[in-house]
């Protein structure tokens, strides 16, 4: 599985758009990129996943360029409740395990 | 509500004791995994299973055993608890094609070994 690298922490203010970039230079052809959100004392929660180009759901957007060596999670108009740790992971389409890195601590301020 | 249920939510063990952390899912997911999370750190994979009767080791399997006799249940056994196993344990499950819906995680078991 490809190793992913993301910033340790980010700060933002309510109402702003937040973009968290993840690097995965050695991503394999059959790897997908997935993002999870974790609040304190809770298990991670699936946010979004994609293979390439752009994916959007009711929570976030995910941008993966053609070379797939990086990806960007975009959170529109964040609120205080979006303060959490965000994990970027690579996994195989029929993958049987997720390997987590350290994640990005996002702090949203008022 | 459908999901992953972990019991107990909290547990205190003495060094050397054994116990089983329970995990059950009612979504007919074939894939199940156990993770541990230490303070301020990410999750580390302990063991995982791709279906009933099939298990494999993850990143940190030492001191833990698993079995998968049914699709629904994936218990994690601590053979002889050590203070280094103090952690929060999460169980997760997924369909084989994880790309469809992602993994569903339980709410965790907070274990303290004294």
Secondary structure: elements and pairs:
The complex is a heterodimer of chains A (110) and B (114).
Chain A: E1 9-13, E2 18-23, E3 31-38, E4 45-50, E5 53-56, E6 61-64, E7 70-75, E8 84-92, E9 104-109
Parallel strand pairs in A: 1-9
Antiparallel strand pairs in A: 2-7, 3-4, 3-8, 5-6, 6-7, 8-9
Chain B: E1 4-7, E2 10-13, E3 19-25, E4 31-37, E5 43-51, E6 54-57, E7 64-66, E8 76-78, E9 87-94, E10 104-105, E11 109-113
Parallel strand pairs in B: 2-11
Antiparallel strand pairs in B: 1-3, 3-8, 4-5, 4-9, 5-6, 7-8, 9-10, 9-11
Strand content of chain B: over 45%
Q: Which regions of chain B have little confidence, pLDDT < 50, spanning 5+ residues?
A: none
Taking the alpha carbons of the first and last residues of chain A, their distance comes to 38 Å
How large is the share of residues in beta strands of chain A?
over 45%
Portion in helices of chain B: under 10%
Q: How would you sum up the major sheet of chain B? A: 7 strands, mixed
| Relative helix content of chain A | under 10%
Overall average pLDDT of chain A: 91
Overall 3D shape of chain A: globular
Compute the number of helices of chain A.
0
**Largest interface chains and counts:** A-B, 25 and 29 residues
Order of helix and strand elements from N to C terminus of chain A: EEEEEEEEE
Count of alpha/pi helices of chain B:
0
In angstroms, what is the radius of gyration of chain A?
13 Å
Shape of chain B: globular
Oligomeric category: heterodimer
What structural class do the secondary elements of chain A suggest?
Answer: mainly beta
Number of strands of chain A: 9
Segments of chain A where pLDDT lies below 50 for 5+ residues? Answer: none
């Amino acid at each position: 599985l490809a190793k992913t690298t993301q910033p340790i922490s980010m700060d933002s203010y309510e109402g702003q758009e937040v973009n968290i970039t993840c690097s995965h230079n050695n991503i394999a052809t059959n790897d997908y990129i997935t993002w999870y959100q974790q609040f304190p004392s809770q298990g991670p929660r699936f946010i979004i996943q994609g293979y390439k180009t752009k994916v959007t759901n009711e929570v976030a957007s995910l941008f993966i360029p053609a070379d797939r060596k990086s990806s960007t999670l975009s959170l529109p108009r964040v609120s205080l409740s979006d303060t959490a740790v965000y994990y970027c992971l690579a996994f195989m389409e029929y993958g049987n395990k997720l390997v987590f890195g350290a994640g990005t601590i996002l702090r949203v301020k008022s | 509500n459908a999901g992953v249920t972990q019991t107990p939510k909290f547990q205190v063990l003495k060094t050397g004791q054994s116990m089983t952390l329970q995990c059950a899912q009612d979504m007919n997911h074939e894939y199940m995994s156990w993770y541990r999370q230490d303070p301020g750190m990410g999750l580390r994979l302990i063991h995982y299973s791709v279906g009933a009767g099939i298990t494999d080791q993850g990143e940190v399997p030492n001191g833990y055993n698993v079995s998968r006799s049914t699709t629904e249940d994936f218990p994690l056994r601590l053979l002889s608890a050590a203070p280094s196993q103090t952690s929060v344990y999460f169980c997760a499950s997924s369909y084989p094609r994880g790309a469809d819906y992602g993994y569903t995680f339980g709410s965790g078991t907070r274990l303290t070994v004294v």
